Amino acid sequence: MNCDGLRACSRECLSKKKECKVKECRLWIDYPLEYNCCLISIHVHGNMTLREVGERIGVSFARIKQIETEALMKMKHNRLLNE
């Protein structure tokens, strides 16, 4: 990764305006508008709402909220997050 937070493959997709076809990549999302790459989504939009995240990964806002709540509880439990 470079200082922009993108991988070389993400930079290549952006420069060529071409969707990523490597579905095995853990950063791949089925969102062709942003070249199927979550790094490109973040690079282009910065912080996103839970609705925007849900739209990109194909789940409801409510499910994203459940995931967020579970993650925050785990972080508090493991003392990775100050209360």
Quick structural summary:
The chain has about 80 residues and is mainly alpha-helical. Helix content is about 50%, strand content about 0%.
Topology:
Layout: H1 8-16, H2 38-45, H3 50-57, H4 61-77
Helix pairs in contact: 3-4
Overall description:
The protein has two domains: 1-46, no CATH class; 48-83. The chain has four helices and no strands. It has helices at residues 8-16, 38-45, 50-57, 61-77. The mean pLDDT is 91.
> What radius of gyration results from the CA coordinates?
15 Å
* Portion in strands: under 5%
The oligomeric status of these chains comes to single chain
Sequence of secondary-structure elements = HHHH
- Which residue ranges are poorly predicted, with pLDDT under 50 across at least 5 consecutive positions? none
**Whole-number tally of structural domains:** 2
Please tally the helical runs, counting DSSP H or I stretches of 4 or more residues.
4
**How many strand units?**
0
Distance N to C terminus: 32 Å
Biggest sheet architecture: none
Helix content: 40-55%
User: How confident is the prediction overall: mean pLDDT?
Assistant: 91
Note the overall shape: globular
Overall structural class, as computed from helix and strand content, comes to: mainly alpha
